[in-house]
Design a protein that fits this description.
Blueprint (H helix, E strand, L loop, with lengths): L15 E11 L6 E7 L4 E9 L5 E2 L3 E6 L5 E7 L6 E13 L4 E8 L8 E2 L5 E11 L3
Antiparallel strand pairs: 1-10, 2-8, 3-7, 3-10, 4-9, 5-6, 5-8
């Protein structure tokens, strides 16, 4: 017997739905951060998953994170790597769901050990796959 993931979101109350941002981030040119996409106002970010098939090149940075790019940047708001080594898939279900009060652009950041922005990441031929899942209200 094989098991498959249950992707049925019928457990959500009427009026709520899930949204995702699934993107391959081209980091072939080194930078301090890379835009991933925008989470709509009123949403709750539920999970983040990252796959970097190769070790990421960096200057100064020792980790990379997913966080808020707009307003006051928060490089590790949703996720922080343990290092820059190649990872098949790193995923996290957020312990405390992060509510977004205004549209929030999120990004992939070069980070130091405590999650603060630091240096740059990226190099020739490098990319990172990102999947962000959030819950939002349906429109009428």
């Amino acid at each position: 017997m094989s098991l498959t993931a249950n992707r049925n979101v019928s457990f959500l109350p009427q009026g709520l739905t899930t949204g995702t941002i699934a993107k391959t981030i081209d980091i072939s040119t080194a930078a301090a951060n890379f835009s991933i996409g925008t989470i709509p106002a009123g949403s709750v970010v539920a999970s983040a998953a990252v796959k970097n098939p190769q070790t990421i090149s960096a200057t100064t940075a020792v980790k990379f994170g997913i966080g808020r790019l707009t307003a006051t940047a928060d490089p590790d708001k949703y996720w922080l790597s343990t290092n820059l080594a190649a990872v098949n898939t790193a995923k996290t279900l957020l312990d405390t769901a992060a509510s977004v009060t205004a549209d929030e652009e999120i990004g992939l950041f070069a980070c130091d050990t405590n999650g603060a922005a630091a240096g740059t990441i990226g190099g020739t031929g490098q990319s990172v796959d990102v999947l962000i899942t959030y819950i939002t209200a349906e429109t009428l």
